Amino acid sequence: MLTIKKRIACRIAASVEKSFGQGTLTEQDVLSMLEYPPDDKMGDLALPCFKLSRTLRNAPPRIAAAIAEDFSDEAVARVEVVGGYVNLYLDGAYLVRHMLAEVADKKDTYGSPNEGNGRVVVFDYSSPNLAKPFHIGHLGTTVIGHSLKKLHEFAGYRCVGINYVGDWGTQFGKLIVAYKKWGDRETVENGGVDALVDLYVKINNAISGNEAQGIPADPALADEARAEFCKMEQGDEENLALWRWLVKLSLKANDEIYRQLGITFDSYKGESNYTNEMPAQVARLRDMGLLKLDDGASIVDLEAYGMPPCLILKRDGSSLYPTRDIAAAYDRKQMYHFDKSVYVTSAGQSLHFAQWFKVVELMGYDWADQLVHVPYGTVSINGAKLATRTGNVILLRDLFAIATEKVAGIMEEKNPNLENKEAIAEQIGVGAIVFYYLSNSRMKDINFVMEDALSFDGNTGPYVQYTYARASSILAKAERVADASEIVVTAPEEAALAKVLASFEEKVKEALDTYEPSVIARYILSVAAAFNRFYHNCTILGAEDESVKATRVALTAAVKTVLGNAFDLICLHKTEKI
Ligand code: ARG
Questions:
Q1: Ligand 1 near 167 CB (within 6 A)
Q2: Which of 3, 53, 201, 431 could form a disulfide with 461 if both were Cys (CB 3.0 to 4.6 A apart)?
Q3: From the CB of residue 416, how many other CB atoms can be counted at a distance below 10 Å?
Q4: What pTM did the predictor assign?
Q5: Which of 338, 349, 355, 372 for a ligand 1 pocket mutation test, highest count of atoms within 8 Å of Cβ?
Q6: CB atoms within 10 A of CB 137
């Protein structure tokens, strides 16, 4: 569509020049003004002329009429002037031919805006705090982060995915206290992350008390936890050995989640790696006179920028979250020479990022403006808010298991003889959760309703994955695809489908520009809807005319390519048989 749009823009600019004089409007101006009308009845593209009336010193309908008057292009079947709009109706056959040729030519790069030119983008995502359960709150950073990485890769950027695991901090102090009090090696070794979660919940309950369970608050335990962590920071070998073991157990549990999602990382360099690199950054802050003492702690005052101070060192000299982030960002710049470094976290951390980004700028680092924070909203399940500390949490692993089991049940009814049933049920079950999540704009607060996510006929993951499988099964039976000279367009659904497929690149571009994988999820829904309309109204393999049949097979093949490319961008499996 972009090529067609550009050509139309060029013609319009030329006709404006002819009617109203030279240099009044560039092709780029027109391109940015061309719109997709809300309703097909108003054309496939429209140019509103209202903004032009000032520069061209004419009424919008007059300008529209002048543009329409001598418009001619093989891609456009008809032009209409309505009020101040020029409405353009594309030629269906042209569109189908043009789109099919491009998909066949570009295949798995079809839809790529090809804008990266090898520039480097680093993504910090997923990054869970270890020793805590990997729960549904981590879904956002994990799948949004990975999708953004995939989108950038698709567009020709060189990407580095970093899982900046929270493997350092007082949560380990807490866990060590809990382990020493209540744990034993065997239970934890065998119980894995579940045993860790139990200990974590137990210690938090003990620290803050739990009225319902009749547990009184014992704040002294929090001091103990801090002391254990302090020992770790000072190199206490006993605690460090325990820590290494706990980290290993947590990482192993998370691996399974990443496997299910089909996600791998290029680096797992987590927070603990920066204890040695921090002093250099702290020294730079001090030398530049940016550090201030505040009640024993070292801070950077950000009042001038309307933000609370950024905490750099605690009173006891131990490091803090922002300090580690600054050291890690510096390290990444040295290591990857990034052009952009993207952090995906919940919106609850927006202030943290705004603060330390500002500190990096004040430190004089010229890459400060290459740091980007991408926030997202909260998640609840069936209306319930979740909190790790109290144990009111749904583990992602359990959520995936429930979804997989439900899908397996549905599949058993629909297709009992399917090969490889278990693996497919997992792909569809996990895909259902991912798709449900990603079809919402990232800043929206999401309430998870399992039945909605898993339905096979709503606007869901199973529905779009099923659509992909449907296209695959038609193609498996088809003998051949039409070549360019043979394409015939005989039904409106064919052109309507081609129009949706042709807009993929623009959607990818929009998703990239706004850091919104939801644009791709919604686009997938529109492809599925157009394909299913086509499938129900047009006979494909049974079409009598050979050329009609071959054209429809080619359209189906294009659907498979476009859906496949789009699935890759949002962690959906390309399951051929369901
Ligand atoms: N570990 C943190 C958490 O779970 C998220 C880390 C995000 N990345 C970063 N560079 N701060 O809240």
A1: no
A2: 431
A3: 8
A4: 0.93
A5: 349
A6: 20
